[in-house]
Specification:
With 174 residues, the protein is of the alpha+beta class. The chain has 2 domains: 1-61; 65-173, Chitinase A, domain 3 (Roll). The protein has helices spanning 2-60, 107-110, 124-130, and strands at 65-66, 72-77, 89-98, 103-106, 113-116, 138-143, 164-173. Strands 1, 2, 3, 4, 5, 6 and 7 form a 7-stranded antiparallel β-sheet that branches. β3 (89-98) and β4 (103-106) form a beta hairpin.
Length: 174
Amino acid sequence: MKIRLIPLFLLLLLISCNSGNQQEDERNLDTKELENTLVYANKQAVRAEDEQINDFLERYNWKMEETGTGLRYAIYKHGNGPKAEPGKVAVLRYSVRLITGDEIYNSEKDGLKEFLIGMGGVESGLEEGILLLRVGDKAKFIIPSHLGFGLLGDQDKTPPKSTLIYDLELVALH
């Protein structure tokens, strides 16, 4: 009797192990499918925002350079001061608008913006753009949401998924 139970026990063990693997495979498949769906949705959102920015540029006839990350910039007045570099404190006079034209921040009301270059604390698009400037430069930056405040906004005046338009002057470096 014991001999007959051992093969039956082994068979049950084998079946339960295989069904566990099947469930794990299904979970992995569901996770991969969800990941693919989210990646696709993100690419579509980036593409739609890019089209919106291109439409804006065309409508206002702005000629801007584009970096590999998607930051658009135009330096419309060249200064003759030192070039911005990581480790320096940048001091900016600025105006920030949404792509709709609504102004959300302005240095006349909010004070000059100061930040340590290369240490974060500001939008990554602003961080990237400042490194293109020297003291005295005036520039416009169009910062897509993935280089700005992303999906959440800034929890103040910048709504979620907002494209930001900076008009700024690099006033000083310390």
